[in-house]
Amino acid sequence: MTSSKNDFATYPKELDLSFSNIATWPNWIEPGEYSELEVLNIYSTKITELPDAIGNLSELRELHLGNTGISKLPESIGNLSKLEILHFNHTDIEELPESIGNLTALKCINAHGSRIQYLPKSFENLTAMERLYLYYMPLKELPESIGNITKLKKLWIQQTCISKLPDSIGKLIGLEDFKYDSELGEGLPEPLKTRFYYKS
């Protein structure tokens, strides 16, 4: 059965396809018609691939891809310069494109349950980030450049493969909510150790 845009909740600035049986990217999502789109939600659909054309949705502020079979983000995602929220939790995504560093308006990434092991070097450019959810995934390390993201308020990295925290994490003095595996506690620098240290 072919879906049409009349099958879903559509608003001038929001398109919600979540929890539908849609399995392929709808060919009726054209950048011309949806040039003002700010929120796109395909959470818990059967979509497995994003087209390069998603980079043409230049007004997008929120992109919800969680609980889908998507395994790759196209390089064109770096064109979404106004994107503030990016959720791809519980997907098969194994790496982020370098173009992710172009998303300098990003305030929230939810990657928990994905398959990412390393963050790209360009991640250091995401200095507007406030909430970063990287738990329950095979992430092996946080880059030293994490200390550049000084607006970070929430950082969740529990149930990962991280064995040591970078020294620069001590620069994140604005953290309000920091969750991590207890064995990393001894390596917390001040002032984070005073505020967040706990034993298992």
How would you briefly describe this protein structure?
With 200 residues, the protein is an all-beta fold. The chain has one helix and nine strands; from the N terminus they run βββββββββα.
Note down, in words, how this protein is organized:
There is one protein chain. The protein has 200 residues and is mainly beta. It has a single domain (5-196), classed as Leucine-rich repeat, LRR (right-handed beta-alpha superhelix) (Alpha-Beta Horseshoe), CATH 3.80.10. Helices cover 2% and strands 14% of the residues. It has one helix and nine strands, in the order E-E-E-E-E-E-E-E-E-H. It has a nine-stranded mixed beta sheet, with no helix packed on it. The longest helix has 5 residues, at 192-196. The relative contact order is 0.09. The model has no long low-confidence stretch (mean pLDDT 91).
**CATH architecture label:** Alpha-Beta Horseshoe
Shape: elongated
Percent of residues in β-strands:
5-15%
Q: Output mean pLDDT.
A: 91
Q: What is the CATH topology?
A: Leucine-rich repeat, LRR (right-handed beta-alpha superhelix)
The main sheet comes to: 9 strands, mixed
Radius of gyration: 18 Å
Structural class: mainly beta
**Any idea how many domains?**
1
Q: What series of H and E elements makes up the topology?
A: EEEEEEEEEH
**Major β-sheet strand ordering:** 1-2-3-4-5-6-7-8-9
CATH class: Alpha Beta
| Low-confidence runs | none
Q: What is the H level of CATH, i.e. the homologous superfamily?
A: Ribonuclease Inhibitor
What is the helical fraction, as a range of percent? under 10%
N- to C-terminal distance: 52 Å
The total count of strands amounts to 9
> What is the count of DSSP helices, taking H or I runs of 4+ residues?
1
